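Our preliminary data section would be incomplete without showing what the modeling component actually yields. Below, a chain of 170 amino acids is followed by its predicted structure, encoded as tokens that our downstream tools consume directly.
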Amino acid sequence: MALGDLLLPKGKFQGTNWPLPKFYFLVLLGTEKWTFQEVGNLSSSVEVLKHRHGKSGQTGVYKIPGMVQMDDVTLKRVTFTGNTRLFEWFKSARGKNPERRDVTISLLNEFGIPEIIWSLTNAFPTKIEGGGFDSKATGDGAVAIESITLTFEDMEVENLLKMGLRLLKG
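Predicted structure:
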């Protein structure tokens, strides 16, 4: 029996294994809740080291995992009147001891409950953009966008459904 079956009455929903919408998420910079319209590039990769020692009978190379590399994350949001907090954080990060924050990005389900959480450790901004401006742009989507690129030391991904099931079993 799945956790969702315990929480939801039968017949109300087709099942508990639904794809999550990509537009319903929450971002915490430190302890502050921020609204962003886009989070880009939550990815990491493992460097592949190639090795072949002289006494090996193997004709190719051995491939072994190396260091984990974390890609920078870009956050985009609408520019609001008088709100320069992202620029202030970027400015504080230009010195020898940048202001680092833990960043939490939560993908939410239809009830607003986090399903998957990405935790970025010791993040600080490396790039900021005030957006592009176009005097010919009009209509609903013609708003100024600002973006900030963050680098960080480590990324953890947590699946809250699996965590909940472990708590129920254990």
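Strands lie at 25-29, 32-34, 38-40, 44-51, 62-70, 73-78, 101-108, 114-129, 145-151, 154-159. The radius of gyration is 22 Å. Preliminary results of this kind motivate Aim 1 of the renewal.
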